[in-house]
Design a protein that fits this description.
CATH topology of the largest domain: Udp-n-acetylmuramoylalanyl-d-glutamate--2,6- Diaminopimelate Ligase, Chain: A, domain 1
Largest sheet: 6 strands, mixed
Number of domains: 2
CATH superfamily of the largest domain: NIF3 (NGG1p interacting factor 3)-like
CATH architecture of the largest domain: 3-Layer(aba) Sandwich
Radius of gyration: 19 Å
Strand content: 25-35%
CATH class of the largest domain: Alpha Beta
Shape: elongated
Number of strands: 12
Helix content: 25-40%
Strand order of the largest sheet: 7-8-10-11-12-9
Structural class: alpha/beta
Number of helices: 8
Length: 218
């Protein structure tokens, strides 16, 4: 059993969230039980995610995308139903967005690159003044097919590949989520491959025109 507020304070400190400019209101977003025995994790605080966390007996739900962003908004519609589910279950909701993206140890971008076997990781990718991604190199050159297959297996996904660059991938940059708008930064940095979560309409032709490689890993 652990104290809710101590968990939040430790995570805030470890991720350095108070130093990160972010639209997300990182940290505790909805206060539930003071004592925590079980924590559930999810990408986004959807109603289904909240219900499943409560059903499995969790006392706290930690997500990447929480409920509170920028300016406050009316507690109506879907947001009202999510808050009702949280308060009814006694579940605490916490969210850490950009602080998790950019963390060099437990952050999603760094972990994904390490999962693919990359070394010599460096911060990469500006997002509204925050460097949130990472780039790295492979000890031995890899192919797009090899990397896409690894992502498919590890993430249980169906990667979308635009193969217009070098066939021998020695360097790669990752910005997970909706990072397609940072593709141009990867090309300008001379990276052999850019990996993100969601694609965007211009990505394919930009890859073709710049003879670059792009993977949307889903």
């Amino acid at each position: 059993m652990a104290d809710r507020d101590k968990i939040v304070s430790f995570t805030d400190s470890y991720l350095g969230s108070k130093k990160v400019k972010d639209a997300s209101q990182n940290g505790l977003q909805a206060e539930g039980r003071a004592e925590v025995n079980k924590i559930a994790f999810g990408v986004s605080a959807s109603l289904e995610c909240i219900k499943r966390a409560a059903a499995c007996g969790a006392d706290m739900l930690i997500t990447h995308h929480g409920l509170l962003w920028g300016r406050s908004r009316p507690f109506a519609g879907p947001l009202k139903r999510k808050l009702e589910a949280l308060f009814r279950s006694g579940l605490s909701l916490c969210a850490w967005h950009l602080p998790l993206d950019k963390h060099p140890v437990c952050g999603n971008n760094a972990r994904l690159l390490k999962m693919l076997g990359a070394v010599s990781l460096k911060p990469f990718g500006d997002y509204d003044g925050e460097t949130i991604g990472f780039s790295g190199s492979f000890p031995k050159a890899r192919t797009m097919g090899d990397i896409a297959a690894a992502l498919a297996i590890k993430l249980d996904a169906e990667p979308l590949c635009f193969r217009f660059g070098t066939e021998k991938i020695k360097t790669a940059g990752i910005i997970s989520g909706g990072g397609a708008r940072m593709f141009e930064q990867a090309v300008a940095s001379g990276l052999d491959l850019f990996i993100t979560g969601e694609t965007a309409e211009p990505a394919q032709e930009f890859a073709r025109e710049t003879r670059s490689n792009f993977i949307s890993a889903g």
